Amino acid sequence: MTARTRQPLPATTLAAVMAYAVLSVAGLVGTWYFNLAYRGTDGTYLEAWFANPASSSAAVDVVVAALVACIFYGVEGRRLGWRRRWLLFIPLTFAVALAFALPLFLMLRELQLAREAPDGQPAPTGRTGHGIRR
Q1: 102: Cβ–Cβ under 8 A, 6 or more apart, which residues?
Q2: Are the CB atoms for 64 and 58 separated by under 8 Å?
Q3: I need a surface site. Which of 6, 69, 94, 117 has the fewest CB within 10 A?
Q4: 16 in Cβ contact with 103 (< 8 Å)
Q5: Residue 130: band (very low, low, confident or very high) from pLDDT cuts 50, 70, 90
Q6: pTM above 0.85, yes or no
């Protein structure tokens, strides 16, 4: 339901919100299970990221994606009128996990777009600029 109108969320918005919520929880649990299981037998945690070419490839992939996500948080957060709220997602990305923070950000973004949509209309995608403060 949207906060202002108490209208049910459109099915596509609800599906996206639920998918983002499930993926955020999976990202939190999945990453932290392995973070806590790591005992440092292969050197420091960061050294283990670059232990071989396969893990190095995955590490570079995650680091670049995390940096891109941080830029996206700022651009989209300001576009949504979040002032400084978007800044919370930067430490969440690096201290918790990108797999947690990005779906959480997208879920909250989707809910805000749904709140700003005209009653009964699907949330705007952002392509037309409707419902998004610039």
Answers
A1: 27, 69, 89, 93
A2: no
A3: 6
A4: no
A5: very low
A6: no
